[in-house]
Each structure stands twice: as structure tokens, then as C-alpha cells.
Amino acid sequence: MEQKHRFIPKNPDFHSRVETSFARQAAMNLIGAELVKVEPGEVEIELPFRSDLTQQHGFLHAGMVTTIVDNACGFAALSLMPPDASVLSVEFKVNLLSPAKGERFLARGKVLKPGQTITVCSGEVFSIGEGEPKLVATMLATLIMLQGRPGMVPG
Amino acid sequence: MEQKHRFIPKNPDFHSRVETSFARQAAMNLIGAELVKVEPGEVEIELPFRSDLTQQHGFLHAGMVTTIVDNACGFAALSLMPPDASVLSVEFKVNLLSPAKGERFLARGKVLKPGQTITVCSGEVFSIGEGEPKLVATMLATLIMLQGRPGMVPG
Amino acid sequence: MEQKHRFIPKNPDFHSRVETSFARQAAMNLIGAELVKVEPGEVEIELPFRSDLTQQHGFLHAGMVTTIVDNACGFAALSLMPPDASVLSVEFKVNLLSPAKGERFLARGKVLKPGQTITVCSGEVFSIGEGEPKLVATMLATLIMLQGRPGMVPG
Amino acid sequence: MEQKHRFIPKNPDFHSRVETSFARQAAMNLIGAELVKVEPGEVEIELPFRSDLTQQHGFLHAGMVTTIVDNACGFAALSLMPPDASVLSVEFKVNLLSPAKGERFLARGKVLKPGQTITVCSGEVFSIGEGEPKLVATMLATLIMLQGRPGMVPG
Hints:
Four copies of one chain form a homotetramer. By secondary structure, chain A is α+β, with helices and mostly antiparallel strands. Chain A has one domain: Thiol Ester Dehydrase, Chain A. The first copy, chain A, contains three helices and six strands. In chain A, strands 1-2-4-5-6-3 form a six-stranded antiparallel sheet. Chain A is globular and about 45 Å long. Chains in contact: A-B, A-C, A-D, B-C, B-D, C-D.
């Protein structure tokens, strides 16, 4: 009993839409994150390790782990929304499964359930370095679609 | 039916302990966060707004909101732990209640339930600017105490 | 920096509205839960201990703890909604702080942030018996208001 | 980048261990839930629809949905623990994706990350009736292993 998802995007330009919105996030530039995959309902973001992103034990800070996977979930949701929509995170939960050490980190967000108002996504963060990639965090997130808010750019 | 908490710290130097651990977090320096209050079971962190910390609508990025409140919760937990202990976030959930706009942001973490192994904290983030401070996010977090891990500095 | 909430209900009959909706929940009758307080944005539900509600160690099952506090949060949200609205839980997180043993349990739900679409509530469950009431669980919940859905009774 | 899990149980009698613990849960009997699958790190529980388990719109109550998936996660964690261990839920988050209507409900819990102290599980609930099974809820849960607590039966 598995559910397979093949999502049909409502915005044919979903890819450039996500790229534009990502580029507008100054925080992504600050931490050095890159958008590496955009498919309907699935987005990946990569973050190379940097020592100025760490917590007290020298691992990637849980807040940075959250930043990239929150974004991966948000853009996965946005990829299925109509052209004039904006997406906001309502809430998320993150479990930190292993210390976030590695050369770089890959955050993947997937839409579990798209909706007219509410979209639910799951997210994962893998650390990549020597050996097999390792799952370091998992997210379950709720997002909301906003339409027609004056002064709010889509994205 | 309210529960009042007056916590007795196991480490008389809990204040400098939290300060030292905070200072070791390179990510706090990167984003410009400051430790502004350390009491037994309660910690506050302040983050001035900066345009390089924003998401696509120009508000403070949810990941940055999470970074400071995760830390406030973690250090609130650490303030009640013995001198040789380390603290790690097991998981947290954040509800984003209002757009994070303001001149600065105050994250407050409080211990709800300290434990031998598991500590549960609640966190809040307020935006401060014109008018009344506004609650922009609330967190419920689970932390774990580690002791005697070789190679892991306390904090 | 505390936020005080005095909520003005949009439905003057909010009290009977919550009572009617509660009475329609067959599950409340099955487990023996009672509605004991309804104020704008705050609801309390009481559940006497029964041995057929327990988990393997003889404590109240976490699912039953969740059932009453999910309801307390849902009805707290409903108490602030207009007469024709329905409320549904989008998601919740529960931390189980202490074994749920006691003669009875009090679940309290409070609105943290009411909204046009999304309402965020916090919930607590106390065990009551000998000695002081004890906090056994805490919830952070997201609810959605539905209006004008044919075939869906308000509540 | 997927992580495959083949777990080796520490207790060769994990199956009867889970069955015994399940049978000791009076709440499972009250609501009519049945244990239908026990594998290392994966457990399924089925719950036939009953009108006395419903909320105000006649769907299965979110608390009952949570009860079965919390159990599926807890027993999935227990299936990988040594014979003298007990398992308790530390916390969980549930997203309710669709109204829980159907003839019966299948809750599946899977271990994402087993640990010496903390185990993290994901859970799903499907509604089964006419047509395809439908995902109605998803859980992300943190559990703790207890050993050597006097007066606490394993399970």
C-alpha cells in the first residue's frame, strides 16, 4: 500500500518560478546554498559545509539544517501552485537524526499532499562526504498558499 | 491550575557555561545574534534585522527565526545541566504566527520539564519595532543531555 | 514581554455551539469525557481515569491524552469562529512529559493566534489525584476554519 | 539517494513480545484495533470503522487516528529493542491529510532511526473502503527506551 505521486504543475513555468523566488532569498546567498533540482512537487537544495555555519561542536547548526529543508519543502509546494500564488510555511517539525557533519548537505523536499489552501510536505537532509550519504534530519511541514495579496510578490 | 517553575541549577557556573558555548557557535556570529539573558531554565537571544537574512518577501527567513529560538531552547536546557554535560536538539516544532518583520527579534527559550535524559522546552520569538512587540513564532522542543562523550566539548 | 489575549467571539452563542458540537462527538461518549469549561478562546475537557483506556503499563494511553487535548484545542478555536464555520485539525504535536496516572485528567486548549483561515492553539493535560495537579502533556496545534461546505454540519 | 533499512532484531522473540504488549493495552480492546503485521522495525495495526469512534462530522476522530499510529510507531520501535526494555512515546506530530472516512483504517509504523536511547519512527494511516486506499494521516514520532525500571513490565 504505497501512494505514488505524479503531480501536474499548474504553472508551466514552475521551474523558473522557483529559481526566481530562490534567487530573491538573501539568506540563501549568505549561507551559500544552491538550488540543484526542481521537479513538480520535488525540490533539492545543496549546502557546502562552511565553518561559519556551525554550532558549538563544529557540526552544521540545526538552524541551518532547518533553513535548507524548510526551503526545499516550500519550493516543492510552490512548484505545484498557480503563477500568481505565494507560499508561506505555517509550521514544521524537524527530527535531527545524526550529527550534521560532512563536506556538503543535500536537502530534499517532497509534496505529500497538495491542496487548495494547505500543502503538506516531507523533507530530508543528507550529509555527503566519505562513505554513503547519511540521513541527518527529517521534516514534516505544513504550508499555505496565498493569492492576491497586494504588495506581496509571488514566490 | 498553573505550574510555576523555580529551577535550581546543578552547575553554579551555568551563566558562563552558556556564554562559552554560545561564543563557540560560529553561526551566531555569522547572523549577528547576541545572548541577552541567561537564568536557570530561561535564555533570551536577540537578533537585529539584516537584509541578508531574509526570504523572498523581505521578512526574516523562517530558518533564521528557528535558528535563534532553537538556540534559546538549547541553552535554557543547558543552564540546568551538570558541568560536564552537552546538550543536543532531538527535535522541534515551530509555528510561524506572523510575518517576521521588525527592527530586531527576541527569542526566548524556557524549560517546561527538565529530565535526567530528556528536557522539553517551549520557545517564543517576538518582533520588536514600532508599536507593541509581536509574537511571530512559537516552538516546542525536545533536547537530550549527553555525558562523557569523548571528543565532545561540553556545551 | 507577554502577550495577553482577550478574545471577542464572533458568535454570541459560542458556548452552546461548542456544547452541541461536543455532544455530536460519539468518541467523547465512548471514553467518558466531559466538557467542563467554555470561554472565548479557551476550553477545558475532563476525563476520569478508566482501566479500559490504558496502555501496557496501566497509564492513560497517549492516544487518549491526545484525543482530549486535540478536542480542547479544536473547540477553543471554534469558540472564536462565526456561526456557520466548521473547524478541522490540520496537524498537532504532543510532548508527553510524565506518565499519565491519576484519578482524572484535565485537558485545556487555548488559542494562541486566531486567524481568518488558520488558528494556532496550545494545549495542556494535567493529571489530578493525590497532591498537586501534574502537567503530563503539552500540545501545539494548527487548525483550519471551513465555511460553506455543503453536507458538513457546523462544528 | 535513498536509505534502505534492514534491521536485525536484538530480541529473537520480538514478534511475541509485541503481541504480548499489544494485548496488555486495554485501550486497543476498547476501540477494536488489531495487530496485523509485526516485522523488525515495522508494525501494522488495523481498526474497523465504528460509529462510536467518530468526531462531529461522522469521521474517525483524529484522536483515534493518532491512537493507532502512535501504537504502530511504538511497537515498531519495541520490535528492535532488547528483551528487558520498555518503550515510551516522548512526542509525536501528526498531519491529518484527508477526512478519515472508510470501512477500516490501517496504521503503519516504521523505524527511521533506531538508537541506544532515542528511536525515531514515521507513521502513516490509510483509509480502506471503495476505491484505492487513501493516505489520511502521517506521523513523525520520537520514542525512548527504558531499561531496568522496577515495577515497569517490559513492553
